[in-house]
Design a protein that fits this description.
Number of helices: 16
CATH superfamily of the largest domain: Histidine kinase-like ATPase, C-terminal domain
CATH architecture of the largest domain: 2-Layer Sandwich
Length: 533
Amino acid sequence: MMFSIMPIENVPNEAPKKRSEIDALEQRFRLLFDSSPDAIFVEDTDGYVLDVNTEACRLHGMTRDQLVGKHVLDLVPPEARDEVSREFPRLAKGELDGVEGFSFAADRGPIPVELRTRPIEYAGKAAILLHVRDISKRRQAEEALHRSEEQLRHAQRLEAVGTLASGLAHDFNNLMTVISCYSDLLLHGLEENTRLHQDTQEIRKASNSAADLTRQLLMFSRKQIVSPVLLDLNSLLAEMESLLLRLIGEDIEVVHNHDPDLRSVRVDRGQIEQVVMNLAINARDAMPRGGRLTIITSNVVLTEAECRLDPDAQPGNFVCLSTEDTGVGMDEETLDRVLEPYFTTKELGKGTGLGLSVVYGIVKKHEGSISISSTPGRGSLFRVYLPSVESAPRQPSKEQLNLEKPRGKGERILLVEDHSEIREISERILTENNYHVESAANAADAVELFEKEADAFDLLFSDMILADTTGLDLAERLRAINPELYVLLTSGYMDDKLQLRLIEEKGYPFLSKPYANMELLRTIRRELDKRAD
């Protein structure tokens, strides 16, 4: 179909009444023409602009007089001109109706647009009516949706791996408890400096390494329990300085630049130490021939505008811990994946790929964020943002641990543990250290034992997750019978299933698995000694 448009200046001279009607028609046409949300161009079949509407002028940042007479190739980005020139005949016929491309504005650069064309007759000649729709906002919305979908898929993968890690951690922690406790028994019964004693020490060391790996998995999955305290990062870094120097080696210079007025943070000390060590190790590995590692602390205020660039960030007051190295740096592809679990650029067997993902998990657990900038050959800069608080940190008193094994004084303990091997080794450790132990595999058996002579028991040592109830519910039930009963709870779980917040509200001490013999004995002795206090 061919539409016909005739410019007003080409209308024959008619009577005044007829002329006024044509003027009114022209005004209505121009009003509709200029009110269109799309840019409208009238072009001749060679591609030269004959007329434009207001939106076309806005799109290109030009006046009507500047646009009329221009060729279509002058209005597209230079890199697209060859393609537009090839496709123009098909575009003029309407064969590429609805195609997407780019227009060009000097003040905005390339603009994504959608094109629709119709062949028309203009001033008695064949021409082209071209509708150009600015789709910048639509493209931005599509890109934002794509990023959101990617973030959702990433979060779902993390959640799935986190759930798996939590379940595996429980089983590993039970196994490591058994291995640790039996290793400690062997070490206690063997003469030092013997081959068998050394072999057993290696077993114990491997057990500790396995427990550390489990904690790393939980940190990455953000299911690790945190025990936050007010902390001064400057003091923490000062205490860790000698450790970091040994960790990274003598060929790397460590420079500290700490804000003396640094605000405090409420964090789990052990996990923040893990963040510092993992960042230092990552910097060391990026500088195989030596270099410089700069550790910086500062007070930072993140604005809403800054947070829009990072979906993990939130506006507010933060303490920023930065590590800057002079290493090999990272390209854009590596930067996009550097926080993924098990992603590593190291050779096979040289890295687990958990280090930076552990950092990410810990930081997110503390409601913080992390940003990374890097250039190949010019090093990397990691910034960790932790929410700050104004209160001065309390310096925790360091308990002087008794090097002698803390033995029992004949107290009676009710041990409730559904894992048979842990139950057996725990009962053996306690019995050999002067405690009288009654053990049960579930809550029902424990209640039956307790009700026979409730006043005879001094302490309940129970696993938190039992087949028929929780250790917390069991403790409440037994203390309703004997309010003087002391309680110690334990578990290999480290996620919400543990109900740690509720345990803390009740004021019950908690011993996480895997535990060593000395740790078990010290914890129980400490709780029972409260009676004397």
